[in-house]
Write a structure and sequence with these properties.
Blueprint (H helix, E strand, L loop, with lengths): L7 E4 L3 H12 L4 E5 L10 E4 L2 E4 L5 E2 L3 H9 L7 E4 L2 E4 L3 E4 L7 H8 L6 H16 L10 H7 L5 H15 L8 H12 L8 E4 L3 H4 L1 H10 L3 E4 L3 E7 L2 E6 L2 E5 L1 E4 L3 H8 L6 H8 L3 E10 L10 E3 L7 E4 H4 L5 E7 L9 H16 L6 E12 L17 E3 L12 H18 L3
Parallel strand pairs: 1-2, 1-14, 2-10, 14-20
Antiparallel strand pairs: 3-4, 5-9, 6-9, 7-8, 11-12, 12-13, 15-18, 15-19, 16-17, 17-18
Length: about 425
């Protein structure tokens, strides 16, 4: 019997949907991607303000983000689009860890041994912690909170506050008292235990839409696919062995569907598909964490000691000097991960507080302007034992993609990309013909 032609619809133009569509396009499988907004990138997208390109949230990549970096290369993204630096975590006046040019994991061991700002006993305990995790292959017999894990290994002192907690918040966007230790260990495993370059910090030099989504859309178009923006898919209806997608003013039938929206947007689309009920129940139980990004434009001669610095003792967690990376001198971007009293403050109050914290540390002048972006549902809360739906949640022609689906990673760009690639591979291997 002749194979039925595959026509794949991808709903959602974030990194997960684009990764799926690029992978399918590479296999010359006809694909149409629908994005409700006018800008590609989803929760990692560019934002224009006062003629300056910013992002809806500060995101960095790691050298361990191999799928993301691979797809960027595949779609023609220049190596100059990112700045790759050996891992250096600096909280001015408090803590500094730099990894020497040694193979993994020796680079971390010696980095911890020579870290500044920590008592020798805590540095040695951190090395024992790293060795113990490696001997366990970074696996826990039972998941627990990151706070409990740190307490168990005596990492809840100064080193917990200055190193492990900031890393957990940056990776999982979930407070350590509820964050999954196993997911955190997955990130540490991939970043520190394989190749030294895996722990590299990879800083975008352009906004997040220009970094990969625009190149991905061009790649899809060159391989006879389509990217449709400003089109919100409102329904998915089974149509014999296919699916009929409906949107305002139109509809179309596809043989396969990858739903790559945010989880809260996926729920209404799953309502007409009975076999997705288990996945829908999981999504109903999800809770979410915010991310606040505060941009402050200072005079152009303002420059920090480095492109990315940690902060402690206030609301600010990381500050990025986009003059180093984006060619916008004097523009500083501050990230506040996870929940807190700040999330309900007016923009003027939050920006004023962040400037106060920066001014105390770096003796800055008054900012010329500010822009506050708060993503209230930036990520799912990556809590202990959270059950996440698999990519394949029904017949062999319907899939879920997104950083929230089952996988080793938390809600990161790499987690999103991996899920999209997996959906595409399932279609090419197992999809309905």
């Amino acid at each position: 019997m002749a194979e039925k032609l595959k026509r794949v619809a991808v709903i959602g133009g974030g990194y997960a949907g684009l990764a799926a569509a690029v992978t399918l396009a590479q296999q010359n499988i006809p694909v149409t991607l629908f994005e409700a907004g006018k800008t590609l990138g989803g929760r990692a997208r560019g934002v224009a303000y006062r003629g300056i390109s910013m992002d809806n949230g500060q995101h960095i990549l790691l050298g361990a983000y191999r799928e993301t970096l691979r797809l960027m290369a595949l779609t023609g993204v220049s190596r100059d689009a990112v700045q790759r630096l050996p891992l250096a975590l600096t909280i001015p006046g408090h803590f500094e860890l730099r990894t020497p040019a040694l193979p993994a994991p020796l680079h971390l061991v010696f980095g911890l041994l020579l870290a500044q700002g920590l008592p020798l006993g805590e540095r040695l305990a951190a090395i024992r912690f790293a060795v113990a995790l490696r001997l366990r292959n970074f696996r826990l017999a039972q998941d627990m909170s990151v706070a409990s894990l740190l307490a168990r290994y005596r990492q809840d002192g100064k080193i917990g506050r200055l190193l492990w907690e900031p890393l957990c918040l940056a990776a999982l966007n979930t407070p350590i008292a509820q964050a999954s230790a196993q997911v955190f260990l997955n990130v540490l495993r991939d970043s520190f235990s394989r190749a030294r370059s895996d722990s590299d910090v990879v800083l975008p030099r352009t906004d997040l839409t220009s970094l990969f989504p625009l190149a991905a859309a061009e790649f899809i178009g060159k391989h006879d696919g389509k990217v449709v923006t400003g089109c919100r898919v409102r329904s998915i209806e089974p149509d014999e062995e296919n699916f009929k997608l409906g949107w305002e003013g139109g509809s179309e039938t596809f043989s396969h569907v990858i739903c790559a929206t945010a989880p809260q947007h996926a729920l209404p689309l799953l309502a007409s598909l009975p076999y997705t009920a288990p996945a829908a129940r999981m999504l109903t139980d999800f809770t979410y964490q915010p991310i606040a990004s505060v941009y402050l434009q200072y005079p152009h001669d303002t420059r920090l000691p480095g492109p990315m610095l940690g902060l402690t003792g206030g609301f600010s967690q990381w500050v990025f000097d986009r003059g180093y990376t984006h060619g916008t001198p004097g523009l500083l971007g501050v990230v506040i991960s996870a929940e807190g009293e700040h999330q309900d403050w007016p923009a003027e109050q939050l920006a004023g507080k962040i400037h106060e914290e920066l001014q105390q540390r770096f003796s800055l002048p008054s900012p010329l302007w500010h822009k506050v972006i708060v993503e209230r549902r930036a990520t799912f809360a990556c809590s202990v034992g959270l059950e996440r739906p698999t990519q394949s949640c029904g017949p062999n022609n319907f899939y879920l993609a997104g950083d929230y689906t089952a996988g080793d990673y938390p809600a990161t760009i790499e987690g999103a990309v991996r899920s999209g690639v997996k959906c595409a591979e399932l279609i090419t291997r197992n999809g309905q013909r």
